[in-house]
Write a structure and sequence with these properties.
With about 290 residues, the protein is α/β, with parallel strands linked by helices. The protein is built from eleven helices and nine strands. The strands form two sheets. It has a six-stranded parallel sheet, sandwiched between helices. α7 crosses α8 and α10 runs antiparallel to α11. Bound molecules: adenosine monophosphate (AMP). The site of adenosine monophosphate (AMP) has 17 residues, from α2 and β5.
Length: about 290
C-alpha cells in the first residue's frame, strides 16, 4: 500500500476535480515534511472532517530567512509517505520550488500587524513567505477545510486573518499542540538537539506553564515575564527572543490577563530555535 503522490498543480487539480464530481469534501494539511505525531494528529482530524485528505510536503524557501536553516531542514519524503499509509490519507502533494515559484513569480501576500511582531520581528519576510505559500496551497487544492497546529499559533492566526481578508472559501481548523511526555512540543527541529540539549529543552514548556499560571493569578506582568525569561536562560537556553502575553484572537499586546490570552515564547537552545505557546485565562473565568 502507498499514498498516491502528485508533484504538479495540473495533476493535483485533475485528482481534486474527480473527487468533486462525486460530491466529496476535501481537506488539506500543509506541512514541510519530516512528519511527526503533531502532523499526524492534524491528518487524523482532517480525516474525521472531510471525505478526501491531501497532505502537502513543501519546504518553502520563501519562509526561511537563513540559507543555512533551509539547507539543514530535514527532508524525509519516503518515510513521510510511509507514515501516512496507515492513517488513510488520500493524496500527497509534493511540488518542488520551480513548480511553486516558476520563473517570473512576482506576487507576495502580506498580512500586516499579525505578521510583523513576535516571530515576524526576528524573522523578516518569514510570514510573507508563509501567507504566500498557504494562499497558493488553498487555491491549488480548492480545499473546503485546512488543518493547522496551535504549536505555530501566530501562523494560525495569520492564516485565519488572510482567509477572512481575501474571502478564501476554506475553513481553517486549529488542532492542539502535541507534546512529548516531558512537555516538549513536537517539532521537526527537535532532531537537531544534542542529547544534552534535549534534556534541557522541556524547560521551555514548563516555564511557559508556570508563567501563565502566575499571570492568571494576577502576577505583575513585566516582573513575571522577566522571571520567566531568566528561568529559561538559567535552564541553559542561549537566548530568549521573546516571551510575551498577547490577546488570543488578535495577538495584540496585553498588560494583564483580563481576557483570554496566549503566552508565546521563542528561544535558542544552542543553534536550534524553538517556539511554544500556551493559553491563559483570568482565574475564575469560564474560558
Ligand atoms: P511544519 O511542517 O512545521 O510547517 O508544520 C506543519 C503543520 O503542523 C503546522 O500547522 C504546524 O502548526 C503543525 N504542527 C507542528 N508541530 C506540531 C505539534 N507539536 N502539535 C500540533 N501541530 C503541530
Amino acid at each position: 500500500m502507498s499514498v498516491p503522490i502528485v508533484r504538479t498543480v495540473a495533476e493535483l487539480r485533475t485528482v481534486v476535480a474527480g473527487w468533486r464530481r462525486s460530491g466529496a469534501s476535501v481537506a488539506v494539511v500543509p506541512t514541510m515534511g519530516a512528519l511527526h505525531e503533531g502532523h499526524l494528529s492534524l491528518v487524523r482530524a482532517a480525516l474525521q472532517q472531510a471525505d478526501q485528505v491531501i497532505v502537502t510536503l513543501f519546504v518553502n524557501p520563501k519562509q526561511f530567512n537563513s540559507a543555512a536553516d533551509l539547507a539543514a531542514y530535514p527532508r524525509t519524503e519516503n518515510q513521510d509517505a510511509a507514515k501516512l499509509v496507515p492513517l488513510g490519507a488520500h493524496l500527497l502533494y509534493v511540488p518542488d520550488a520551480e513548480e511553486m515559484y516558476p520563473a517570473g513569480f512576482a506576487t507576495t501576500v502580506s498580512v500586516a500587524a499579525i505578521g510583523e511582531s513576535l516571530c515576524g520581528a526576528f524573522r523578516p519576510g518569514h510570514f510573507d513567505g508563509v501567507a504566500t505559500v498557504v494562499a497558493k496551497l488553498f487555491l491549488q487544492t480548492g480545499a473546503d477545510f485546512a488543518f493547522f497546529g496551535e504549536k505555530d499559533f501566530q501562523q494560525l492566526q495569520l492564516v485565519r486573518r488572510m482567509v477572512k481578508d481575501l474571502d478564501i472559501p476554506t475553513t481553517v481548523v486549529a488542532c492542539p499542540t502535541v507534546r512529548e511526555v516531558d512537555g516538549l512540543a513536537l517539532s521537526s527541529r527537535n532532531v537537531r538537539l544534542s542529547p544534552a540539549e534535549r534534556a534541557i529543552a522541556p524547560k521551555l514548556a514548563s516555564v511557559l506553564v508556570e508563567t501563565a499560571e502566575r499571570l492568571a493569578r494576577g502576577g505583575p506582568l513585566l516582573a513575571t515575564l522577566a522571571e520567566g525569561r531568566a528561568a529559561t536562560l538559567a535552564a541553559g537556553y542561549r537566548e530568549v527572543e521573546y516571551l510575551e502575553l498577547r490577546g488570543e484572537a488578535d495577538l495584540r499586546p496585553m498588560t494583564s490577563v483580563d481576557r483570554p490570552a496566549r503566552l508565546l515564547v521563542a528561544a535558542w537552545l544552542g543553534d536550534t530555535r524553538l517556539i511554544d505557546n500556551v493559553t491563559t485565562s483570568p482565574i475564575g473565568s469560564t474560558n
